[in-house]
Amino acid sequence: MSTLTIIETGRPPEKMVGDWPLYPAMFEDLLSPFLPGWTYEAVALSEGETLPDPAKLDAVLITGSPAGVYEHTPWMTPLMKFIRAAAKANTPQVGICFGHQAIAYALGANVAKSDKGWGIGRHVYDITAPQPWMGAAPPSTFSLGVSHQDQVLSLPPGAVLIGGNAFCPFAALSYPEASAISFQGHPEYSAGFSCALYGVRKGTRLSVEMVDAAEQSLETPVDNHLVGQWISAFLSEATD
After folding, report:
1. Beta bridge partners of residue 147, listed in sequence order
2. Which is it for the CA torsion 5, 7, 13, 15, positive or negative?
3. Which residues partner with 94 through β-bridges?
4. Rg of the Cα atoms in the chain
5. Which residues contact 222 (CB under 8 A, 6 or more apart)?
6. Rounded CA separation 83/100 (Å)
7. Alpha-carbon gap, residue 72 to 19, rounded angstroms
8. Active-site amino acid positions
9. What is the pLDDT of residues 119-148, one digit of tens each?
10. How many Å apart are CA 45 and CA 133, to the nearest integer?
11. pTM of the predicted model, to two decimals?
C-alpha cells in the first residue's frame, strides 16, 4: 500500500470556503478510483505546516496556489529545496498549476507572469511526446480547465515537453531522471468550481467578458477523468 502526500500550497478564496472542498480532497476524489488501496495525507504548507523528508515518502503531489514561485513567502525556499531533494531521492512527484511551475522552477526553468495575461476556461493542448503512462493509443490532444497568469517559459534541463498550445507552450512536462510529471491545467477542478472561482474575480482581476467566455467554454466537457488516469498510471508505475 502506498501513500500520496499532497503538499497544499494554497486554498480557494475566502468567499468560497465552506462551499467547496479543499484541494487535497479534490485530488483524492480524482485519483482514488484509479489507485485502489492508496492512502492520502495532506501537508498544509501554506498554513505553516512543515515539509517532511521527501526521501521517506512514497509519492508527492503539489497543488495549485495563488502565490508565484518568485514570491518571498516563508515556505517558498523550503518548497524548492524539497522538490530538488525529492528529485535526487527519485521520489515520484506530480505538480498541478502552481505545482507545475514550482517543479519546473526548482529544476531550472524560467517561470514568470506571462505577457499574454490570464488564462481561464477550457484550454486544449496538443500532445507532442506521448508517454507510456498515457496508454497504448493516447489522443492527439487533451483539455483542462485553467486559471493562471504565471507560466513556465523555458524547458527545464532534462525535461520532456509532453504538450502545450499557443497560449501556454510548456503546459505539460515529464522529468524522466527526476521521476516527475506536471500539468498547468486543473484536472481536479469541476466546471462548477472553476466558474465559481472566476466569479469571485469577475469585474476585478478578470473582465466580465473574459469570465462569460470562460464559463461558456466549460460547457464543453474537459478531460479530468483522462488526466486523472494518466497521473494514477504514472504514480503506479513509479512506485511499483
Report:
1. 120
2. positive
3. 61, 181
4. 16
5. 122, 143, 144, 145, 185, 191
6. 11
7. 30
8. 97, 186, 188
9. 999 999 999 999 999 999 999 999 999 999
10. 29
11. 0.97
